[in-house]
Amino acid sequence: MIRFGLIAVLLLATACGTSGPQGGGGSDGGTLHVWVLEDKLNETQQKAADEFNKTSPVKVVIDKFNPDSYPDKLRVSIGSPNAPDVFFNWGSGSIAPYVKAGELADLTPAFDADPALKSAFLPAVLDVGKIDGKYYGVPLRGMQPVILFYNKDVFGDAQPPKTWQDLLSLVDTFKAKGVTPFALGGATAWTELMWIEYLVDRYGGPDVFKRISNGEPGAWRDPAVLKSAQTVRDLVDRGAFGTNYASVDYNSHAAETLFAKGKAAMHLMGSWEFTNHMELQPDFARKGLGFAPFPAVDGGTGDPANVVGNPTNFFSVTAKSQHKDAAIQFLKTMMSDTYVQGLLDAGDVPVLGSVEPKLASTPNPEFARFQLDMVRKAPAFTLSWDQALSSAGAQTLHTTIQDLFNGKITPEQFVTNLEQVK
């Protein structure tokens, strides 16, 4: 499974699927165009539109786009006569340019007028759709936190690490047994990014990356960034990822296979790891896959309960839409029992605080409850850096992180090379 966020930053564009709305934003009279990606939730989204259209004089039309071309298609369309009324996005940095250009509707009044709407969603997730203190997105699908997975058979009586010293001890233990401590698809750069994201958060808290993503001068020079780069090099030098990680391609499931077959003890990966194993190694997914939070680090000021990853995806409303009220009413269907069940049936864990009783119907209720509890207790949920930064910045970030892991640059050079990234 390739992350939508990764796809979003690779992109060159020719739209696939629909050609997009003609006169979207209401010029066709009574039509509300909603742009989404072509993915597993399209059926659920269409059912929500069909239900809404039974009673609304403004009719929702779902326009589906290929993920590869979608971000560029959106950039060209926003602000034009062909802009959608409502569109899929990743929150945070992915919509910040549109907010600054005045192209998005401020949804804060809608949340203020309907406290049940605001309180329905997990606060740490909802805040990813907030920019400059105002809400510009409503969560539309499940959470995707990055989780420390471990192989129960390899671990035996050992426990997943709670502290950094625990983690280092496990690295030494598994190395001595001839087992690679951590699977890592190092040929795919974003798999390495997760380590930096968590370490920076644990050492310095979420405000470190917040300052970076805001483009504050000197933000990359925060001591937490250098310390995290030094910690990565220590892990590499200790053999935490083995010796061949740079040639392991995540997209061909090589890292997952090493992990499932017991050749690696742990794997730091997004929650989609479970879905992938259910497709490729279902017995391992049900019986052998363990999961735990990322551990605390010595001397860190970040809360160990903080989470990084993909909080969720959002729907935002364009400022020029002639059907803003209808759009907001449609967005409230993201809370409906029918829509929530559609998410659950697709394997997503919705970002609603009230969803817990429904998790028994998921493929692995224990894992679903772990995710919900993890995110619900998180003081902060930081969006994956390559989704929060510009496309050009994300590409530089990927290259620089691979160079760090592969020993081509020092931790100090890592910081220097990233100072151009925004």
TrEMBL record:
Keywords: Signal
Gene3D superfamilies: Periplasmic binding protein-like II (3.40.190.10)
Secretion signal, residue range per the UniProt entry: 1-21
The protein's name: Xylobiose transport system substrate-binding protein
Keyword hit for Signal: yes
PANTHER family given in the database record: ARABINOSE-BINDING PROTEIN-RELATED (PTHR43649), BLR3389 PROTEIN (PTHR43649:SF14)
Domain of life: Bacteria
